[in-house]
Amino acid sequence: HNVVDAFSRTQSVDVFAQLTAGVRLLDLRVSKLHAKYAQDRRFWIVHGPAACVPLEDILDQINHFHRNQDNAASERGREHTPPLRSVITVVRPLSLSDGEVQELAETIRATLTHELYLGSAAELRSIAIEELPLNIVAGVAGLGELSDYKWAADIWIDTYDIENKVTLLGEEVRQAKPKSERDTLHVLGFTVTPQAYHFALRILSLGLYRNTLLKTATTLSERHLDTFLAQHRERLLQCVNVIFFDAVSAADAQTVHTSLQ
């Protein structure tokens, strides 16, 4: 369990700290534990095979954030609170039955202590940003009109071959609809792609070579960045809202900024 957890963890601070720092969009993959752990029927935030933290813990941290903002507004006045307090939570139910999704909706509704938006996407667009409801949840059937609303297209390319990854990313960009023809975000994941043997070495070494292997995988990905940006510049500008990197140097960040001016 500890080995899987170590290889699945992607963040070093909790949700409350992230919200306090300014984060306003949470993307949660929610599931339940395998049947052999039937005694624990809670919903969990998952990453691959790892159950990371119970969902209710995340919801409690959202409540904690809103309570802190309430207290700040009472003590110092509204002008001392962030203009955007709303927390937007996109939920991705994984391997849940229809009944479990309904249970998930009831859990979220019962646990969140502050205003929960239940209207449509069209109505949401008409609300001024400073007047947005404190909790906006999308992706859960039975929880308002945003149950089937897709906030973003985030296509996962499942490969351990960086050459294949870059080719498939290029195909994704070529097939993407222009921004003017849709009302969702298109997120392109130019993420580090470890080779299969990287995982084997990390597991066999119990993580001893983690940093070295990550640096190697990052270097392999970076070698393709300039060419990828040059080949697809116009389509990236027309069709992609966000390019997501999970490891990038300052020099590469500058390359992206310069290339997509």
List the helices and strands and how they pair.
Elements: H1 2-8, H2 15-21, E1 25-32, E2 43-47, E3 50-54, H3 55-76, E4 87-93, H4 98-111, H5 121-125, E5 135-138, E6 152-154, H6 162-175, E7 185-189, H7 196-204, H8 210-222, H9 225-239, E8 242-244, H10 250-259
Parallel strand pairs: 1-4, 4-5, 6-7, 7-8
Antiparallel strand pairs: 1-2, 2-3
Low-pLDDT ranges? none
Overall residue-averaged pLDDT value: 81
Oligomer: single chain
The structural class is alpha/beta
Q: How many helical stretches?
A: 10
Helix-strand string: HHEEEHEHHEEHEHHHEH
Strand order of the largest sheet: 3-2-1-4-5
The portion of residues forming beta strands comes to: 15-25%
Description:
The protein is of the alpha/beta class and 261 residues long. 44% of the residues lie in helices and 15% in strands. The chain is built from ten helices and eight strands. It has a five-stranded mixed beta sheet with strand order 3-2-1-4-5. Strand 2 (43-47) and strand 3 (50-54) form a beta hairpin. The longest helix has 22 residues, at 55-76. The chain is globular and about 50 Å long.
How do you describe this structure in short?
The chain is of the alpha/beta class and 261 residues long.
